Amino acid sequence: MLDPIVDPLAYAFFVRALAAAAIVGVVCSVVGCYMVLRGLAFMGDAISHAAFPGVVAAYLLKVPFYLGAVVAAVGTALLIGRISRRGNLRGDTVIGVLFAGMFALGVFMFSTIRNYVGDLFGFLFGEILAISTADLVALSVLGAIVLAIVALLWKELLYATFDPLGAAASGLRVGLLDDLFLALIALTIVVSLQAVGIILVVAMLVTPAATAQLLTQRFGRLIAIAVAIGIACPIAGLYLSFWLDTASGATIVLVETAVFLAILVAGPRTGWLRPRARAG
Amino acid sequence: MLHRPGRLTYPSAMTSIESPAPRAADQAVPSPSVRLTDVTAGYADRPAISDVSLDFRPGRLTAVFGPNGGGKSTLLKVIAGLLRPWSGEVAVLGAPPGEAAHRVAYVPQAESVDWGFPVSAWDVAMMGRYPALGPLRRPRTEDRDAVAAALEQVGMAAHLRTQIGSLSGGQRRRVFLARALAATPDLYLLDEPVTGVDITTQEDLLDLLEAETRRGRTVIATTHDLACAASRFQDVVALNRIVVANGPSSLVLDQDVLRRTYGGHLLVLGEQAILLDDAHHHDQPPGAEVHHHDDVPERR
């Protein structure tokens, strides 16, 4: 008899994919909560596209994929922060310029590869079912670094996000924290690239945090709910993609989006179906 | 030459009010907790404050008042180390701005805070303890005690777990003052602490700040509210890009200073000052005239 839950676990690649999905889900939702509170949702999109030339360069130079992605993503993140702080241009303008520019550089470099056997589609939309054990180890290490830094500095990041002026005046190095946080976003995106790809990674970051925001006004619970959604949705999405034989990254993102929409409409706190007009 | 509080000479007609004579105060003046010397600062290419020289002494409650765009917030940001002055010297608690940051509590204007943020009154007040705690460490019993005491002091003990944006405007200001109190600073910098709050909250907050000055702390607050500045603050600074006047509020807040600070947009009737919409006697730009007050700094 066919068991839809247990049967896929007979495949080692599926078990690796589940592990990767859970790790990516946790890291993305924790960082995503701070991102959403800082109004940096689109920064995620920009940084993931900026990682593309790094990935292609890593291939050309025959160095590990992660190395190229980290350099390009972190570099672009810090550059966006630096240009925005100079104050001549709005942050979203800088993001718009660098986002497209870096992605174009990636496509340009990609087009120079004559006999490349890989698949552009894999970079753009992820290949979580193709993750190797070595990939899984790299992903776990990078994810652990991101979570450790957030665990060390969660108070300072929270204060600097809520009231940057008050935090800076009381001695917190707000500029340094801003840069560090941009680097954390970049690292998180690199961790997630293989799972969901460049185009969809922003959903892994933003959607669980946005859904959690509909459910609570407490910071601790926000993180907890986002993490729960961030683990459950990718796992459900993977199974769904296995049964339906659909693209795994897209299925994961669609499950997260469906949960968001369901809470938006029927959520207990701010849902549209709620009898009273507004929550207090 | 520079004139600082305590060394001001006032026209004899104005020295009749209850404040101690400047000469007498001079002998007991503690060294200033904040000293600005010829400070010019601003944004982009426009100076918001010019050639400002001021002393703020421990144990004094000082109101900085003036029109919108007169540089009140800028002055506070320079003292807080949030804005680097273009020129001039600033000493805060004996160090350059920002160096003694752990002894400074800054409360920004209400508009600069995202009230939808998922933090409770307790969380916000606890932020006052974060800088001293440092990274890694979780709040200890003494931190929780300090936060509980501060929220009790401001009368918010019943709303510890309420999300900050769900509170009224006055309650939000109370919580932010609790955050400052919890940090046990030597210097309070408050940007519009009583703007838009009810009279009970205003009186409560000022009572608490006054109590802090009695413990030797320095309090500097910006305000639009002249009546409040006159009645509750010991010292005032009239600021309209330049320092129009400064000193004990009972001496400085006369019709002439108000007129020069607000550029003629003000009608003074007894103890009440009314801002006028149109100025028909706006013959000179504010602060531009040379006047008999010695406390107008000379431009160099």
If you had to describe this structure to a student in words, what would you say it looks like?
The complex is a heterodimer of chains A (280) and B (300). By secondary structure, chain A is an all-alpha fold. Helix content of chain A is 78%, strand content 0%. Chain A has a single domain (7-266), classed as ABC transporter involved in vitamin B12 uptake, BtuC, CATH 1.10.3470. The radius of gyration of chain A is 19 Å and the shape is globular. With 300 residues, chain B is an alpha/beta fold. Chain B has ten helices and eleven strands. In chain B, the strands form three sheets. Chain B has a six-stranded mixed beta sheet, with helices on both faces. Chain B has a three-stranded antiparallel beta sheet with strand order 2-1-4, covered by helices on one side. Classes of the chains: A mainly alpha (280), B alpha/beta (300). Chain A binds chain B through residues 37, 87, 152-153, 155-156, 158-159, 161-163, 165-172, 213, 216-219, 221-222, 280, and chain B through 44, 77, 80-82, 98, 101-102, 104-108, 112-114, 117-120, 123-124, 127-128, 130-131, 133, 135-136, 163, 165-166, 179, 183, 189.
